Backbone:
């Protein structure tokens, strides 16, 4: 029986993939627009399992996409906006060439624009999904917010990233959701717990930027375009979950404390409000004013299948978390000019502390250095000339180490000019059998409420015991060696005696033989 002839590469994995050039032609887009569309929609290339079969027997290097993803892009409304923008650029160039200025103005007024709201809702069906994917968005926005205003990226993008980053920092302060902080070579790593989801991001240090030449800023700008839209949605939802106004506004009483008349010296009227927000020293206004009522203790019921021990452990963990949130409550800090203001102000405010700085340094200072209620002054100099009695002068690392240790560490190790202890990463958890540095052991002893000096004594005693054991082992080894040497000497003596007796016997035999040969005659 004859059947249809099976042709190669018309079924199976070869039909599930499409090359990038064929995908571009199908969508009628240029390579930059195609790349931009894929980034916005979250579609990435795939590596086929049988690349030669997908490539129809060829071994040439090609980029492959799933065919179903490209069919999905065919119905995207942004594709039409890309085509409209291309037509707009062509008409604008033509109008400039003919010097038709009225046409130029008319075209600029009708410039095609698009929104990414529907893509955000499409990629993140629930709010928790958006929070789980917030790490990269925050890191990119914080990076762009530190860029200088050069031709590498638009000024509006830099300003938008800065505004969104400041809004998120103010939310973390208001909710006291910061948990960990780590100073690395790359920048400062933060981890906050937002609605039960851990969110980790990195903030670069405020150094002058030297833009690398091997980085494609257009690709980064496309990612940032999507991430700013996502972060705007997230900030709006987070602010309303805490009964805060959005866009954020400074509380009325705090606004009076900030002395708005002095703000003219620092920034223009259009920028002064964002500068006050970015100072991170004032509380935010709420939609409904909070009423000060007695806190009612809520009844707690055990979860189904949870034992009493698990319930007690959960309760202790919750109490430790509440204590951690109030780590710096009642403390007043003053930051010297030489220390990084924004990270320190952010961390101190997240844990209930009050912070200020010299009013000539930045807008938003709430009290002066001469205030007698200051408990801690953060300095980064070898020594301080004039010191106030009853005030601790500490290096900045004390703040970050105390947050990670979940307690206010002893201040003696952080005085000005003192060699600082190692800054341990809170993101590393040692498993059983792993090496634990002595500084971490000391920290664990402090968390248990023990005296680290006792731990040192125990370490010294254990070291002495180990030395004694080593000495006893050495003595035993020496005794064994002596016994072995004595046995070897005895063996040597026995061999010598045997050789002597053997030689005596041979002498007697020789004498008898000679006597026999000589005879009596």
Residues:
């Amino acid at each position: 029986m004859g059947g249809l002839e099976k042709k190669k590469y018309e079924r199976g994995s070869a039909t599930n993939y499409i090359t990038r050039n064929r995908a571009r032609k199908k969508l009628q887009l240029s390579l930059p627009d195609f790349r931009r569309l894929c980034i916005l929609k979250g579609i990435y290339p795939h590596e086929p399992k049988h690349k030669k079969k997908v490539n129809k027997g060829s071994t040439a290097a090609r980029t492959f996409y799933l065919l179903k993803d490209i069919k999905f892009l065919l119905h995207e409304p942004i594709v039409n906006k890309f085509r409209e923008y291309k037509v707009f650029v062509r008409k604008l160039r033509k109008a400039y060439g003919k010097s038709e200025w009225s046409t130029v103005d008319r075209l600029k007024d009708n410039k095609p624009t698009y929104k990414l709201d529907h893509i955000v809702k499409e990629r993140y069906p629930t709010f928790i999904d958006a929070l789980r994917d917030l790490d990269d968005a925050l890191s990119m926005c914080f990076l762009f917010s530190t860029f200088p205003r050069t031709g590498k990226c638009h000024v509006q993008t830099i300003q938008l990233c800065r505004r969104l980053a400041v809004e998120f920092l103010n939310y973390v302060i208001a909710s006291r959701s910061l948990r960990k902080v780590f100073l690395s070579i790359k920048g400062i790593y933060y981890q906050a717990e937002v609605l039960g989801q851990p969110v980790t991001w990195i903030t670069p240090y405020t150094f002058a930027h030297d833009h690398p030449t091997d980085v494609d800023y257009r690709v980064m700008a496309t990612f940032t375009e999507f991430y700013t839209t996502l972060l705007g949605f997230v900030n709006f939802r987070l602010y309303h979950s805490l009964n805060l106004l959005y866009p954020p506004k400074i509380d009325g009483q705090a606004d009076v404390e900030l002395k708005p008349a002095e703000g003219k010296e620092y920034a223009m009227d259009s920028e002064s409000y964002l500068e006050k927000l970015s100072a991170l020293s004032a509380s935010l206004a709420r939609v409904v004013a909070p009423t000060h009522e007695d806190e009612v203790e809520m009844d707690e019921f055990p979860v189904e299948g949870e034992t009493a021990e698990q319930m007690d452990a959960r309760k202790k963990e919750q109490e430790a978390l509440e204590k951690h949130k109030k780590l710096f409550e009642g403390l007043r800090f003053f930051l010297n000019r030489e220390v990084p203001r924004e990270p320190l102000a952010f961390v101190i405010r997240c844990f209930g502390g009050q912070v200020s700085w010299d009013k000539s340094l930045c807008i938003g200072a709430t009290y002066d250095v001469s205030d007698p209620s200051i408990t801690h002054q953060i300095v980064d100099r070898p020594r301080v000339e004039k010191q106030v009695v009853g005030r601790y002068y500490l290096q900045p690392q004390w703040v970050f180490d105390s947050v990670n240790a979940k307690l206010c560490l002893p201040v003696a190790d952080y005085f000005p000019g003192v060699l600082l202890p190692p800054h341990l990463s809170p993101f590393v958890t040692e498993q059983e059998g792993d090496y634990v540095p002595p500084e971490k052991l000391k920290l664990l002893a402090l968390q248990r409420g023990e005296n680290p000096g006792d731990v040192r004594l125990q370490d010294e005693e254990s070291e002495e015991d180990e030395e004694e054991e080593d000495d006893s082992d050495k003595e035993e080894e020496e005794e064994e060696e002596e016994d072995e040497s004595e046995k070897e000497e005895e063996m040597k003596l026995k061999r010598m005696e045997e050789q002597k007796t053997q030689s005596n016997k041979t002498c007697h035999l020789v004498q008898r033989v000679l006597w026999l040969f000589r005879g009596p005659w």
Notes: Confidence is low (pLDDT under 50) at residues 253-257. The longest strand covers residues 188-194. Strands lie at 17-19, 64-66, 178-183, 188-194, 197-203, 332-335, 354-357, 376-378, 392-394.
